[in-house]
């Protein structure tokens, strides 16, 4: 015989088991739930079942012992302890990043404007519109010989001589154009980047590219290398340093420039190369003060047609060449470049020309400027 609940009490059949279980758990924790004043037969039945489960050790989680909430509370306590341990160093790190965001890897806020953090410059494919911007006023060292120089972002050595895509020029086929470009690069490397030649040795690799049938060229260069003078000075084509005076810092020479080509006047293809090389050096006698010499070279060469002209197959005609040298003593014509160091005065003639920026590749070389000037930076 079932019991009929009073009008103000919910029917036991309408309350699921989990509701009554929650009520009993609340009762165990001395809570004050809103429940019927007298449990129904359903409630008594659920209570009896829970007591039997407890006697058999089968109490559900949360019944009397409450392992679930105890474990959860323990985990929460451990998290609070962990955050307490991490809190101080984390606060310090946040403060440091707030003061200097560039400490974050990758500089996500773009705050580090130093050249060292900047990516390498893309290849130069046309004349720049202006000189490079000002660099941080850092002093070059043995470990960082290009510190404070725009060349820090330039390519290293041969990597800076990127050949343009070859294509046919009039009757000159693509493969001949490609050959001319490669020979021009070989000339530039042999004259300005070959380690032995830079240290004062004879630039054999560069000389081997030039046509021996071109009147006066190789003879004139040979004279300049043997007996340098104002009229025949090898530094007008070759970058050479006196090994008794200075030695290079490391193996890297920074390079930047471009190469173009067009139809030549000797039945072949004409190539123009315009490149700047930056050489960090120290004195040979031991002091570690670093300085840099900057050399810009513009060469016009041609791979002529041997079927029409008296030329050597696979050799270049040297049509014209010019140079602009920054930070080398004036009016010294002994076949070498002579870098000047900040700690010592000029070793050559007193500069009388204008001040120029040796890194400015936006202008042509001034052919009419014979006076020896000064540079605005090295």
Mean pLDDT: 81
The N- to C-terminal Cα distance equals: 108 Å
Number of helical regions: 7
Report the structural category.
Answer: alpha+beta
In terms of DSSP E residues, the strand content is 15-25%
Transmembrane segments: 82-99
Region (Disordered): 25-76, 110-150, 331-378
Biased composition (Low complexity): 126-135
Biased composition (Basic and acidic residues): 39-57
Descriptive report:
There is one protein chain. This protein is of the alpha+beta class. The protein folds into two domains: 1-65, no CATH class; 139-375, no CATH class. It has seven helices and eight strands; from the N terminus they run H-H-H-E-H-H-H-H-E-E-E-E-E-E-E. Strands 1, 2, 3, 4, 5 and 6 form a six-stranded antiparallel sheet that branches. A two-stranded parallel sheet has the order 7-8. A hairpin with a 5-residue loop joins strand 3 and strand 4 (269-283). The longest helix has 33 residues, at 67-99. The radius of gyration is 41 Å and the shape is elongated.
């Amino acid at each position: 015989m079932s019991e009929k609940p009073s009008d103000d009490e919910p029917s036991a059949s309408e309350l699921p088991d989990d509701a009554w279980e929650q009520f009993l758990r609340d009762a165990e924790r001395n809570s004050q739930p809103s429940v019927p004043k007298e449990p129904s037969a359903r409630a008594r039945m659920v209570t009896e079942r829970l007591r039997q489960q407890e006697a058999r050790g089968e109490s559900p989680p949360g019944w009397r012992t409450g392992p679930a909430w105890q474990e959860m509370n323990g985990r929460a306590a451990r998290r609070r302890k962990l955050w307490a341990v991490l809190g101080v160093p984390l606060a310090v790190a946040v403060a440091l990043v707030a003061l200097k965001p560039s400490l974050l890897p990758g500089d996500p806020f773009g705050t580090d404007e130093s050249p060292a953090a900047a990516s390498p410059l893309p290849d130069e494919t046309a004349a720049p519109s202006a000189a490079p911007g000002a660099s941080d006023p850092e002093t070059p060292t043995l470990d960082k010989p290009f510190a404070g120089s725009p060349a820090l972002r330039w390519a290293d050595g041969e990597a800076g001589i990127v050949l343009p895509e070859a294509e046919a020029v009039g009757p000159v086929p693509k493969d001949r154009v490609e050959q001319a470009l490669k020979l021009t690069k070989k000339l530039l490397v042999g004259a300005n980047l070959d380690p032995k030649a830079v240290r004062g040795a004879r630039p054999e690799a560069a000389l081997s590219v030039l046509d021996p049938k071109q009147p006066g060229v190789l003879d004139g260069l040979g004279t300049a290398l043997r007996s340098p003078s104002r009229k025949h000075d090898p530094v007008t084509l070759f970058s050479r340093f006196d090994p008794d005076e200075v030695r290079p810092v490391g193996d890297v020479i920074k390079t930047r420039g471009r190469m173009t080509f067009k139809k030549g006047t000797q039945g072949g293809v004409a190539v123009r190369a315009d490149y700047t090389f930056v050489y960090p050096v120290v004195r040979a006698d031991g002091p570690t003060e670093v300085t840099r010499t900057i050399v810009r070279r513009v060469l016009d060469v041609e791979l002529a047609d041997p079927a029409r002209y008296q030329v050597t197959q696979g050799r270049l005609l040297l049509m014209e060449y010019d140079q602009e040298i920054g930070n080398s003593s004036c009016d010294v014509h002994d076949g070498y470049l002579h870098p000047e160091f900040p700690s010592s005065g000029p070793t050559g003639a007193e500069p009388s020309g204008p001040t120029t920026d040796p890194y400015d590749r936006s202008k042509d070389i001034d052919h009419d400027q014979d006076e020896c000037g000064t540079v605005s930076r090295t």
